[in-house]
Structures are given as C-alpha cells and as structure tokens.
Specification:
The chain has 13 helices and 15 strands. By secondary structure, it is α/β, with parallel strands linked by helices. The mean pLDDT is about 90. About 40% of the residues lie in helices and about 20% in strands. The strands form 4 sheets. A 5-stranded mixed β-sheet has the order 6-5-4-7-10, with helices on both faces. The longest helix has 25 residues. α1 crosses α3, α2 crosses α3 and α8 runs antiparallel to α11.
Length: about 425
C-alpha cells in the first residue's frame, strides 16, 4: 500500500498566535521603544492582533508603556518597550585565573560585576567555594543595590571542560580532576532554586562577543580563549557550533608533529602545555636552570617564586633575548592553532581572548607577530585577527546572555 506523504501547509490558529507573540517580543527586545502601529507595520501583523498580544505582555510584566509619542501632528501614539526589569540572570566564569560573576537584567544590561577568589583547579573544596561565592554575590548585591526586587530567573556557569550541556554533566575535566562525571546542574539546583545552565566557557566567550562585542553583524567567527587551557568558541552561519558530542573547538589538543601521535595527553593537550601564559613561566625557569643568562632573575631579585608570565613579558620588552625566545615559541604554537582554524573554517574574524589579554603589550609581543606568520601560511584572504573587545569578561558576559536567550527563547523561539 502506498504511503501518503502529502504535508499540511497550514498551521493552527493557536500555533500562529504563539509565533506572533514570539516574533513581537523578540522585535521589542531589539527595537524598543516603539508604538503598536509601528510594530504592526514593520512585522506585517494586523493591528488588533498586535494590541491583543501587547496587552497580554503588559499584564505579564514583559512589556511596559512609556507614554505618548512627542511627534508633531495627528493622534499621539503610546510608546511601549520591553521591560528588562522583569527578571535577571547570573553568569559565572571559571575559566580565568579568578572566578568572575555578573548579574544582568533581561535586557542584557549589566547590573553588577564581581571578581572573586583565585581558582586552584585541584582544590577538593573548590565546588563548595564556588557555591559560597555565588551566594555571597547574590546577598551582597541585593543588600547594596536593591536588586532583590528584580527576580532571579537563571544561572549559567561556564567552565573549561567537556560538558553534556543538555544534562548538565561534566564528561571530562582535565583542569577539574575532582569533577569528572559530576552532575553539576543538579548540585547547583539544590542550592539555587532557579534555571541552571552548565556550558563550556569558550562557547560562552563566543556568545559574549557575538551579542555585546563588535561582531554582531558577523556570521562566521572564532574566539580563541587562551588561559590555563586553550579552546575555540565557533560561530558558523550565525549559530554557536558545539559539535556532535558538545566537544568542538578543543584546539589545545592539536598536534604539531608526527611524534606527538604516540603520546597520550590526558590532562592538557600539547598546545596547552606549550602555548598557555603559564608556559612562559615554565620555559623561562628551564632557561634559568640551564644557567643561561636572562634579565628575569634581575627583575625578581633572584627570587624564582616571583616569576610570572607578566615578568617574562616585561623582560622581553626591555630586550632580554631569552624571554623573547620563550615568547616566540608561544607565538609559533598559537600560529599553528590559528592557521588550522583559518584553513578549516575560513572565518571572517579570529578573536583572541582569555587570561592572555592580561599580559603587558600583548598586541606587540604576541598578536602582531601571529598576524605576520599567518600571512605567510594562508593562501587566501586572511581574517581579521584581534583582541576580544570584552577582554577577560567575554566568557562571564556570554554566560549571562546565554541564560537570557535560553529562558526567553524557550518560551518565545521565533524571531525575524
């Protein structure tokens, strides 16, 4: 018996209303303030339908009226806008040297930013400290700023790990050895009765740069987060690309030689070992151990405990050859990563983010030299290679945006 494959080309009135509500609310989020008549004209939705939906939104607190339009002539239209104070979200980033937390309203306005304790990844009490820090942030901001009047709708936590974001489970976490197979979402839900999202920090950095940086009009770009770990957040055709196993962008595990094919990298990838800011300290200590001359020892007064990646950069800027060689090694390794990203993805822009941006003269010492190398490697038009506009805050701001998009997007998924 033949199958009837004829598809219906109509939708129910209930579904049409849901679509119209979604389209109108998303339009209001981007184009407020605006009148009902303008919404009807711009979206080609009938005035009665627009008015009915707007009245419903006003009742629910999602939209508010601002008063009459001051334009000259004719009947004055009432302007309306999206009520961003209807709720707030919290973003938490664990991918940097210190925990970073931000609270935003639903209109993406930052209400408060906070930088907390230094993260030691092997600390067995780290999770308890994170929960206490979020609680401290919530209580402190509500006490000092009166933000308790804006209800908390969700929390998004970003960390450098292999995550099943649908279940909130950490599948693998080289930097968090005590967190493997942990259902982090369930643990946070027990402490914070709100929507919880667990995501990879590099992907959150891409979201942050996409919505709040200069990349709003770009459909294809990559943010390379360089810190204790290295990862790439990838936007393809205006959509965050996570991969079939949520593991896309783990470029810290890219290989640079055939010999590396036979070495297991369980904790850090070869590029993370050789290209992170911490590698500068490790390599210069090797130089000192081999009795080679370097200004670094003079800068720290022979106290090797005072050596940091920042000290290595300062020495290089004063002409120290050993420090310049160490930095050049880092530049070459990062150039391998970036050239592979360019050749495979052909993005419009490569954005450099993460703790590396905290180093002195990072443009002169690292990003500029990378551009020169890539220019000789890539056989077609180069993408723009630049620092993240949001700096080290790209990840935490992306967490807040992700929470907003998922909370409102779940209820109102359609937009033009």
């Amino acid at each position: 018996m033949a199958l009837n494959l004829k598809l219906q080309n109509t939708i129910s009135s209930k579904h049409q209303l849901m679509m119209n509500k979604s389209i109108i609310l998303n339009y209001l989020m981007e184009c407020s303030p605006i009148s009902r008549a303008e919404i009807s004209k711009q979206l080609n939705i009938s005035p009665p339908t627009v008015s009915k939906i707007i009245d419903k939104f006003i009742f629910e607190g999602l939209v508010e009226e601002l008063g009459k339009d001051k334009s000259k002539g004719g009947k004055k239209a009432t302007k309306i806008c999206f009520n961003s104070k209807n709720g707030s979200v919290i973003g938490v980033d664990l991918a940097k040297d210190r925990i970073r937390i931000v609270r935003s309203d639903l209109g993406r306005k930052i209400l408060e930013k906070y930088v907390g304790f230094k993260i030691y990844y092997k600390d067995e009490s780290l999770l308890d400290k994170v929960i206490k820090e979020i609680n401290f942030f919530i209580n402190n901001i509500e006490k000092n700023h009166g933000i308790e009047k804006i209800p908390l709708k969700g929390i998004c936590l970003g960390l450098p790990a292999d995550i099943d974001s649908e279940k909130g489970i950490i599948k693998g976490a080289p930097l968090f050895p005590n967190w493997k197979n942990l259902n982090l979402r369930n643990i946070l839900l027990k402490n914070f009765p709100t929507k919880i999202f667990i995501e990879n920090s590099k992907n959150m950095a891409a979201i942050g740069e996409k919505y709040l940086g200069e990349n709003k009009n770009l459909k294809n770009f990559v943010i390379l987060e360089i810190g204790e770990g290295i990862g790439a957040g990838i936007i393809i055709d205006d959509v965050l690309y996570k991969g079939s196993n949520f593991s896309a962008g783990e470029v810290g595990f890219i290989l640079s030689s055939k010999e590396q094919l036979y070495t297991k990298y369980k904790i850090k990838g070869v590029m993370e070992k050789n290209s992170s800011p911490g590698a500068l300290k490790t390599e210069i200590l090797g130089v000192i151990k081999s009795k080679q001359k370097t200004l670094v020892t003079e800068i720290v007064g022979n106290d090797l405990k005072k050596i940091t990646p920042e000290v290595v950069c300062k020495a290089a800027l004063t002409g120290d050859n050993a420090s310049k060689k160490v930095i050049n090694n880092m530049v070459e390794n990062l150039s391998i990563i970036i050239s592979n990203l360019v050749l495979i993805l052909d993005p419009e822009t490569i954005v450099i983010g993460g703790d590396i941006l905290e180093l002195p003269e990072v443009e002169k010492l690292i990003i500029g030299p990378i551009r020169k190398i890539i220019k000789n490697v890539v056989p077609f038009k180069l993408p723009i290679i630049k620092k993240a506009e949001l700096g080290v805050d790209a990840g935490v701001l992306g967490c807040s945006i992700f929470a907003i998009n998922n909370i409102l997007g779940y209820l109102y998924p359609y937009k033009l």
